[in-house]
Amino acid sequence: MEPKFLIISSLFLSTLVFSSSTFSQQNTTYSTFIKTSCNATTYPSVCRKTLLPYAAAVKTSPLRLVNVALSTTLTSANATLSTVSQFAKTKRITKWESAVLKDCIENLKDSMAEIKSSLKAIAGLSTSTDKSFLISNAQTWTSAAITDENTCLDGFSDRKVSPAIKKKLRNSIVSLARVSSNTLYLINHLTV
Ligand SMILES: *[C@@H]1O[C@H](CO)[C@@H](O)[C@H](O)[C@H]1NC(C)=O
Ligand SMILES: *[C@@H]1O[C@H](CO)[C@@H](O)[C@H](O)[C@H]1NC(C)=O
Ligand SMILES: *[C@@H]1O[C@H](CO)[C@@H](O)[C@H](O)[C@H]1NC(C)=O
């Protein structure tokens, strides 16, 4: 092989190695940011599981992290709502259970509206001069969403609700409440 070609190709190769190691370093930086942010939340493993897939989009921005956390909370609430709604349509439930599910559906709808309001408050942050007011609003809305989720959960602890329903629906609502609680933690610790 000609020496000139050798130099060029080794230069090319080292560039390739360098850029791919920069990429993976960046990846590590971004996922470490999420892991560190999740570390002090109430449910760190839930936090990592829900937010790590968004590491590349969040990069190291606390504001983007809160945005993603709220969006995933909304998606989770919607999925829970759909699960409960489908169950409420089945014929094998008692009148009492039907009433509990109906209340829960209302709670979940309220919770989703509150998470949307929280998202709106956070979206206003970049242009607002009163950032602490907006963060405080986002905290209030997210707390309200958690209260509604817990109200739904309380309904399921009723003795008249069958173990089958409890088993099927409780987990879904508990995990939504955990995701929401982590999101509130991230909002509480957001500094912009
Ligand atoms: C970086 O992360 C993305 C997903 O976020 C992944 O597809 C890619 O393989 C990762 N690259 C490296 C070098 O780790
Ligand atoms: C998470 O917190 C523990 C202590 O609770 C600490 O030892 C660990 O280094 C932290 N990890 C990250 C990624 O911040
Ligand atoms: C909730 O899910 C339904 C489908 O099940 C979808 O049509 C709707 O857009 C979703 N809403 C939100 C806010 O994610």
Second CATH tier, the architecture: Up-down Bundle
Helix vs. strand class: mainly alpha
Which cofactors or ions or other ligands sit in this model? Answer: 2-acetamido-2-deoxy-beta-D-glucopyranose
* SS element count, helices: 7
Oligomer: single chain
Determine the CATH topology: Butyryl-CoA Dehydrogenase, subunit A, domain 3
Overall mean confidence score, pLDDT: 90
The major sheet is characterized as: none
Total separate domains: 1
Descriptors:
globular; single chain; 192 residues; binds 2-acetamido-2-deoxy-beta-D-glucopyranose; Butyryl-CoA Dehydrogenase, subunit A, domain 3; mainly alpha
Q: Would you kindly provide a written description of the structure presented here, covering whatever features stand out?
A:
By secondary structure, the chain is mainly α. The chain is 82% helix and 0% strand. It has one domain: Butyryl-CoA Dehydrogenase, subunit A, domain 3, CATH 1.20.140.40. The protein is built from 7 helices and no strands. The site of one 2-acetamido-2-deoxy-beta-D-glucopyranose has 5 residues, from helix 1 and helix 3.
Question: Could you write a compact summary of the structure shown?
Answer:
The protein is mainly α. The protein has helices spanning 3-39, 44-51, 55-58, 62-88, 95-123, 131-156, 163-188.
Layout of helices and strands, plus pairs?
Layout: H1 3-39, H2 44-51, H3 55-58, H4 62-88, H5 95-123, H6 131-156, H7 163-188
The structure holds 2-acetamido-2-deoxy-beta-D-glucopyranose (NAG) (3 copies).
One 2-acetamido-2-deoxy-beta-D-glucopyranose binds next to helix 1 and helix 3.
